[in-house]
Amino acid sequence: MITTSIITVNFNQLQVTIDFLNSVKKNTVREQVELILVDNGSVHDYGDEFKLAYPGLIYIRSDQNLGFAGGNNLAIDIARGKYLLFLNNDTEITDNLVDQLSSELENNLDIGLISPLILYYENPEIIQYAGFTAMNYLTCRNRGIGSMDPDRGQYNQDSRETAYCHGAAMMCRRDDLKEVGLMAEQFFLYYEELDWCERFRKAGKKIWFTGRSKIYHKESMSVGKESSIKTYFMTRNRLLFIRRNTSWMNIALFSIYYIFLACPKQIFSCLKKGRKDLVKWVFKGLLWNFLNGTDSKKLGYKI
């Protein structure tokens, strides 16, 4: 009997995704899970290779890149599991992940979304995520709990409420989405899981972390290379998140801070790094918010 639908999205990452499929195959009971993979408009269609790596794989091919939320939403529409487990394709899981997360949801009906402990794959002794602090809505800043700390087992028995889940690994009940709705596709990249957490909270559900299970994430420990797409969507979506989730008064106060302090600081940082080319994307990210409503799916960036 299928109890959990595992959902992942691929974009031009053949071997990384095959490694992920092998990890799921090794660490789950086939009769209890279904695995849904959405290919988000990759240059090549590797469906046959993916199905060979994981027999029984449910494969969805999108002709265009729908972003993180759009890709996951395609899978939600066909998922049969009582629980939905969203995993980045650049993660590898452990043998108790599905059972532990679903057990937490089964035993506490107040939980809406839950994430496990996340460690860096290349540096498995270092923590990436053990929860998030609450958001300061005037600056749209918060802090990762345990981030970059050595993993000494300090969170292994920890199971508690937190401010936000991590998009690399999070589980919810499929039935809860009847009230909460799907992920907001207008974000496309960055902030969509934070926005989803806010919507779960507004529906009366709690956001939860458990250290009783863990995954390994292949994301770099460094900040990573700056790019136009990252600069644009981080700038655009930080303001969009505030517009969607706070009061008009807070939006006004945040906008003053963002336009006259945070964005100029970002522009100065770009110039200092010799990345003059990124400055226009800060302006474009800001401008999008003045030209579009909070439900607009216009990207403002050619993917």
Q: SSE layout and pairings?
A:
Layout: E1 4-10, H1 14-27, E2 33-40, H2 47-53, E3 58-62, H3 67-76, E4 83-87, E5 91-93, H4 97-107, E6 111-120, E7 127-129, E8 159-161, E9 169-173, H5 177-180, H6 192-202, E10 206-217, H7 228-245, H8 248-272, H9 279-291
How does this structure look, described?
This protein is α/β, with parallel strands linked by helices and 303 residues long. The protein is 37% helix and 20% strand. It is built from nine helices and ten strands. It has helices at residues 14-27, 47-53, 67-76, 97-107, 177-180, 192-202, 228-245, 248-272, 279-291; strands at residues 4-10, 33-40, 58-62, 83-87, 91-93, 111-120, 127-129, 159-161, 169-173, 206-217. Strands 1, 2, 3, 4, 5, 6, 7, 8, 9 and 10 form a ten-stranded mixed β-sheet that branches. Helix 1 links the parallel strand 1 and strand 2 (33-40). The chain starts with a strand and ends in a 12-residue tail after the last helix.
Write down the overall geometry.
Answer: globular
Elements, N to C (H/E): EHEHEHEEHEEEEHHEHHH
Strand content: 15-25%
Helix content: 25-40%
Largest sheet: 10 strands, mixed
Q: Give the overall pLDDT as a whole number.
A: 96
The whole-angstrom Rg is: 19 Å
Secondary structure category = alpha/beta
Let me know the number of strands.
Answer: 10
User: What distance lies between the first and last C-alpha atoms, to the nearest angstrom?
Assistant: 39 Å
Low confidence ranges: none
Put simply, the count of helices is: 9
